[in-house]
């Protein structure tokens, strides 16, 4: 698609917000994104594609399985926090049932089961939101967390430019994957993990 110029020229350098804005403007036809954008994409005040957008579960790969990563932003109180009681109170307020309902009403998926059930009930009169929730509920069955290693961000920052080089045709797929593997291995060796 990139080589055929079926996507905007800068697409390979887009960050999440660029991709979301591109989809909302109608210049990007397919967007792999997190659920929080769903309401934005179907709001005529922010999106030219409002009313003409759908959410689907990711396709199955060659193995017949779906794949994807998932997670949620988390909050913690650090050991060195100057006011642990205030920090814990803030974490409670950000994650309590009422706060999650406010978040869920705007689009992001709740992490509390009770709020998830509430959100499904609220969506019954909204076919689009029902589609969104059902798609992400199905997708979650096949999601996995990112690797639990502190080096994950550094590795992803080294790997993705290699993948991009393959997409752009600057490297063969094999060369890009070999280079990505070498960089990831070096990071893990430097960290004492290999």
Report, as a whole number of angstroms, the end-to-end distance: 38 Å
User: Could you estimate the helical fraction of the residues in percent?
Assistant: 40-55%
Care to count the β-strands?
Answer: 2
User: What coarse outline follows from CA principal-axis ratios?
Assistant: globular
Radius of gyration, in Å, reads 20 Å
Q: Strand fraction band?
A: under 5%
Instruction: Let me know the largest β-sheet.
Output: 2 strands, parallel
Unreliable stretches: none
Count of alpha/pi helices: 8
User: What letter string, H or E per element, gives the SSE order?
Assistant: HHEHHHHEHH
Instruction: Find the structural class using helix and strand composition.
Output: mainly alpha
Mean pLDDT figure: 90
Strand order of the largest sheet: 1-2
Overall description:
This protein is mainly alpha-helical. Among the domains are: 57-143, no CATH class; 152-190, no CATH class. 49% of the residues lie in helices and 2% in strands. It contains eight helices and two strands, in the order ααβααααβαα. The chain has a two-stranded parallel sheet. The radius of gyration is 20 Å and the shape is globular. 11% of the residues are buried. The model has no long low-confidence stretch (mean pLDDT 90).
